[in-house]
Amino acid sequence: MIEAPVGLSTLVIANARRYATGKSLETDGPNDGPEIREWLAERGITTPAPYCAAGACAQIHEAARTMGLVLQLRYSAGALRMLDLNPDLVLAEPEIGCLVIWDHGQGKGHLGIVTGVTRVAGELAAIQVISFNTNAEGSRDADQCVERGFPFPQARRLAGYIRIA
């Protein structure tokens, strides 16, 4: 497995944290605002739509461009679709900078960027995640970018982790 270039995860997380201000990104209506429209347009979507995956992909793409990298990661606006597009990048355990995907059933998912991993006695105890289209309570469809913790087994609907490079 190819290791992620040094500094890529740090830059991706820094890019995402610029939006974790506690303020709504949806300045023009539900799932709509200048940044959201740009992120969705990069994924080929021209109408307001959930943007957790598109927002995260935009931060990864910007970091890769800044570092002059072409990544193996295939982007999507669909959280669950990211797993289908990137089978060679799926991880068994989280690592800082990887993507985490939750499956909420009926084709609905949520995606975030792992910013911290906590282990107790070698066992995964919690992950810290920054995600778009959420809120402090962890909704999968809200109006902010938020960094928050997810203790295990709370992450029981976890669909998987994807390495970004």
CATH fold-level label:
endopeptidase fold (from Nostoc punctiforme)
Amino- and carboxy-terminal Cα gap: 10 Å
Q: Measured on Cα atoms, how large is the radius of gyration?
A: 15 Å
Helix proportion range:
25-40%
How would a crystallographer describe the biggest sheet?
6 strands, antiparallel
**How many separate structural domains?**
1
Work out the helix count. 4
Descriptive notes:
The protein is α+β, with helices and mostly antiparallel strands and 165 residues long. It has a single domain (8-162), classed as endopeptidase fold (from Nostoc punctiforme) (Alpha-Beta Complex), CATH 3.90.1720. The protein has helices spanning 8-17, 34-42, 52-67, 79-85, and strands spanning 90-91, 99-103, 109-120, 123-134, 144-151, 158-162. The chain has a 6-stranded antiparallel β-sheet. Helix 1 (8-17) crosses helix 3 (52-67) and helix 2 (34-42) crosses helix 3. The longest helix is centred in the middle third of the chain and has 16 residues, at 52-67. The chain is globular, with a radius of gyration of 15 Å.
